[in-house]
Amino acid sequence: MKNTQDNKRLAFNRIKSELDKVSDEMLSIISKYKLEVKSPLDIIKTAKQKITDKDDYVKFIELSLQGRLLGEAIQHLDATDENLTKK
Hints:
Structural class: mainly alpha
Oligomer: single chain
Mean pLDDT: 90
Number of helices: 3
Number of strands: 0
Shape: elongated
């Protein structure tokens, strides 16, 4: 049981680290193009309008998807063991 806990904790920490990197890259693009929105639901539409470099736009969409997947992975691990985030 302890080995399973250790593996979950390692996975959680690895995913969290990747999510932090994705967040930093997203913030860089958000700052560069001043992507200010009132609702998170407007971010893709606003990004499409304001991001003038096609490569930056593709990177923004990739990071959005990657962040979503990493967030869901953390939620899944957290749901299977409520003690992961409390230590």
